[in-house]
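#random but structural
TW: two for the price of one
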Amino acid sequence: MPDPSRPFTRFPENAYRELEPGETYVPMVPPDATVPELTPRMFAFGLLMNVIFSVAATFLALKAGQGIETAIPISILAVGLSGFLVRIGQRANSILENVYALAISTTSGYVAGGTCFTMPAIYILRLNETDKLDIATMTLFFQIALVPFFGALLGVLFLIPFRRYFVKEMHGRLPFPEATATNEILVTGTSGSTTQALILIYSFVLSAVYTFMAAGLKLFSDVFTTGYATLHPANREAVETLAFGAGGLFATLTEKIKAVFAMGAGAYYVGLGFIIGLRYASIICAGSFLGALVITPLLGSLSLEQLQTINPAIGSTSADEIWYQVPRMIGIGAIFTAGLLSILKMSKVIVTALRQALGGLLAGKAGLASGGGDRTDEDISYPTMLIIGVLAVIGMAVFFRTVVFAGMDHATWLTFISVIVALVIAFLFTTVSAWAIAMISVTPISGMTVTTIIITAVLLSAAGLPRGDRGMLAVLLVGGVVATALSMAGGLVTNFKLGYWLGASPKRITWNAIVGSLVSAVFVGGTIMILAANPGYTGSNPLPAP
């Protein structure tokens, strides 16, 4: 009896190129084919990967300041599982089972990417402390978990109307680098090979040994820096040796020239560099070099009084203090500008995609009923989307009114402004995020998040939001909703493209992503709180949470 999970192994020739006039793309698993799709093993694997990568992605984002795209490692593990099942005499996973498992599990990276750039600021600003807002632990957990879930819902709902434009109308014109890599892994895995999964496992073991030797046994430091005086005492002795003693060359560079070179040498930085690629790793390094080795030394020759005319918050003439108070602020301003430029640059795409979406709505093409029409082109129906959207907005409004702005003057007005700001900014940036992922597989989530925080703070302050701890918490929670919406939209478009290439149902991908985002919100929020307790985001040896 033939294996129903593996009848389709040939990938269409026109999958990566533009279609000729009148040409139709038929996915690897045609719409009229029947293969296993939503199965218990698919849900079990997807949820397990969701939990594991929610924790891993959260730690890496807080350690290195960069989120990770989880689709590639999870797809390798899915292929490895399929090969293992064949070896023990079981049915291999169908390629559509793997697509739906990815839809559940990859939300871990999307939710972590949106949450880790906002929620840890609650601890950095010490808003969780009793003498400030007196937030109970469980209350804080629900706040941290609800914010990304609401954001994920917005990201899903705002992306659905644009799916056909990005995935179908622009077929062959948008490269989708990450989706292409993931797709190739899944297609190659139809043979049941476990080779790529073994590579991932070997890499994990090597990384674990390296990290244990550095962080556990303290055989060497996982941070190399010429500014030895700025290091934690546990690492200073090893670096002082490299610096040829306290009066050596590095000491002169640090104390007189104010030029400090620092480099993370942990295994996670190496892996992250491979994931984001040489081009964008080089851009990040260039910004770091400009701030630490150019701007800071230029300011290092000024006196404390002169420095304070630039930023009154500067408290000393040390390299660390100068960098923290001036070049770092310049970087934040550059990120904010990049976010605004992204909207302006993408304005034509936003208008075109919106026109396509509204055209589909008016023509009744979108939102095919369950079980009707083409499986590979069905979305959640517009009435269902409307119901989910209304419930999400009501949930956000209740959350903002009863939790975020509770006890404040003009609380209802502030709630209204917050919901409108979240909806409008999330809608505008959703298209930017999806386009960025489709073009370069990197979404400027940090820039868009900083932009959102600044806009939210300005508008809410103008609307009467009081300054102080309550005001800061309110802005963070509103910004966290938008940040996760952008991250979710950028990631979900990858899954939609995979489904288009391979023959999966967009509607089923969407529902799996919603379920996965709820699980991710819980585990990402829990991980942030656990890491806040140990090692913490402030103190003697904190996680950087950049």
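TW: number two ↓
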Amino acid sequence: MKPLQTDRAQLMARIASVEEFDLAIIGGGATGLGTAVDAAVRGLKVVLVEAHDFAKGTSSRSTKLVHGGVRYLAQGQLPLVWEALRERQTLLRNAPHLAHAMPFVMPAYRRMDQLFYGMGLKLYDLLAGRAGLGPTQFLSRAQTLQQAPGAKDLHLVGGVQYWDGQFDDARLALALARTAAAHGALVINHMPVTGLRTAPGTGKVDGLTCTDTETGLQLSIKARCVVNATGVWVDDIEAMTQTRVADTTQTHVPHAVRPSQGVHLVVDASFWPGETALLVPRTQDGRVLFAVPWQGKVLLGTTDTPQLTVDWEPQALASEIDQILEEAGKYLARAPTRHDVTSVWAGLRPLAGGHAKQGQLPGATQNVSREHTIKVATNGLISVTGGKWTTYRAMAADVMQVIRKAQLLSLTAEDVTVHTQLWGAQTPTKGDGLSAPLSAPLSAYGTDAPSLSQMPGYNTWLHPQLSEAMVRFAARYEYARTVEDMLARRNRLLFLDADAATRLAPMVAAILQTETTTDPQLAAFLALAKGYQRPV
């Protein structure tokens, strides 16, 4: 399928030409984009607006795992694990160019730990059933070191190997945006919402107002139903109008979001060689530690730190960086230091839980459920928060069913996206114009690879992970407008090596400017990248 042009002027003209949409979605993260796909597949007239860029917030800052949740299994959240394991299989089937199965090794330094966690992972297999990716296996000491050569061998007695999945979160968000667009939805980034429209007399929400950050143009969008899918910012949208949650008497009931900060560090692959990931199910402070191979590097994480404030660019605390490095040093044969970190980033999880009292930090969030919540205000606004990437599709389906039951739109109860392949999903063949299997930097393009090969600069590589053609393709077909859009989410270089991203930024800016004829915001990116660079 030929990629769809994402010319911004044409998108703006299309929005202005529609008198009324069936559904308007605020927020271009996993939940909002998943809902846009579900609604568009149903044939609804859909518009989605994102204040910054798709997956700019939480949805680009995950551990890149498609998983049922071993930690949630230990917490007894069996329904959540069961649902996530089935959604894991669905995602791997519908986006094979962006998600794949991955073996994990859990090293054991006590026999009782090997037995305890091994039996728990056998239950993980049982819950997965036919959706399982591979059997859990008990490993001897020698087998553990063979599968995980980067593991510390002192006092090692054996291990357990199990299977989960891995994906590229930001590019999956982009695939969702393009899938929704292919089914007729209008999706546009860099379009912050400035207010909610309400119908005269009834007070019902009947749309939204927003502003194009490039031109300053203000738009008023009318819609029969509005979904607030803004994650940790969900209360800010609700506060734009006096809302009441159905069946309550309080004005503007908070959505009870408990932001939790997760930090990840990136180090060279030599610290954890091979294609097998590491899982430590319980560190000294009760968290989970991962060492995950990803795009030629290794991700170390993550923290689970309660937060009072929400920012678009949350910063890793020195204590969080030290915690990850200290815990990694206990299990990796070669302990990483701050000097070895090539990129560090933080994200905020929109956990569904109670608010802390003013001026007080909320309690520990490790045990807060990752299930999602959906609320309908008496003015008709739908707000959704919580959940995790693996279950994004189920969350979207639930949103549509809440809309149906509230009789805001006429819908069927059918689950319409379980077999909907995402943009680029079918693996290209030689008949598509490819003469060899796709290399790592190109594999994420899937069926777009032939079109990419026709772009100017296809053989001009700015970096082993980035070509000139990729930048031009992102501007023409992937909604990229700024250097940050390109180097943080169309390509993941900022998240892998912040210094390299900084060096490439001027070249990327020049290419983007010729493609978009707008300011690619180079200075803003260079300032942003400093927060991702090696911690001192």
